[in-house]
Write a structure and sequence with these properties.
By secondary structure, the protein is an alpha/beta fold. The chain contains seven helices and eleven strands. The protein has a six-stranded mixed sheet with strand order 6-9-8-7-10-11, sandwiched between helices. The two termini are 15 Å apart.
Length: 250
């Protein structure tokens, strides 16, 4: 049976079939669910499918599950909940923590056993979370993602322009001038270098909280590669950490 892991965010649906490469579809597309189902079924190459869905967006989860059951009333569909993740969440309301944060934290605890880890998940929102060496989720911080910062600056001002998010392969600290001498460069440098500096500062703050020298740091999410090029801390980049966690759940 082919396992189709689906990570439903606020702006995109990410999915993979078994160990095949990650795929992505924008939720702004009117037929995103149909495209996902068709492409994932084709990638399963005729095998029966087990659909595992982790989501931070309840309306689109309901839509996708409905489409799957329309296609096949007996489809094997499971919405992953916090109860499915073998991780102790030492926070006030574990059931209110984003499922993607818990999945990424659990997967980090499996990859980096017996050491604490910090997971930076860079998507629509950026989360920086701490997992101790006992594999307990200790919470973290949430800040606006890079695309959201660009968008909100353009929407919330009269004179500042909307600009495209730069490609990770074309971005480095050296390519972002400070001081910038034009508006577009000033926005790019401010958001990208400011976000990277904020993440680095938060990581150092959490490192001090744990007080361990061998702590592991991992960047994941759609903007992981972009922020990785700007970060000054030593880290690993595992863009599909959440999808791998969905597939690895017992």
């Amino acid at each position: 049976m082919a396992i189709i892991a689906i990570d439903l965010g606020n702006s995109a649906a990410k999915w993979c079939v078994d160990e095949q490469p990650e795929q992505r579809v924008s939720l702004r597309s009117t037929n995103w669910a149909e495209c996902l189902i068709q492409e994932a079924t084709a990638a399963a190459s005729g095998h029966s499918c087990s659909w595992r869905i982790a989501s931070v967006n309840r309306p689109i989860t309901k839509l996708l599950v409905g489409r799957l059951l329309e296609e096949d009333p007996h489809a094997d569909v499971k919405a992953v909940s916090c109860d499915d993740i073998p991780l102790v969440a030492k926070v006030s309301n574990p059931d209110r923590v984003g499922i993607d944060r818990l999945l990424a934290a659990w997967m980090a605890s499996q990859l980096y056993r017996d050491v604490a880890s910090i997971v930076v998940d860079a998507g629509s929102a950026i989360t920086v979370d701490l997992v101790n060496k006992e594999a307990e989720f200790l919470g973290g911080v949430i800040m606006p993602g890079i695309a959201l910062q660009f968008d909100s600056l353009a929407r919330g001002t009269d004179a500042l322009p909307a600009i495209d998010l730069p490609l990770a392969t074309e971005t480095s600290a050296e390519s972002l001038p400070v001081p910038a001498t034009d508006t577009v460069s000033a926005i790019r440098s401010g958001i990208l270098l400011g976000t990277a500096a904020a993440i680095d500062g938060l990581i150092r703050h959490l490192e001090a909280r744990v007080g361990e020298n061998d702590l592991k740091i991992v960047f994941t999410g759609g903007d992981a590669m972009l922020l990785s090029r700007l970060s000054t801390v030593r880290h690993d980049v595992l863009p599909r950490l959440v999808l791998d966690a969905i597939r690895a759940l017992p």
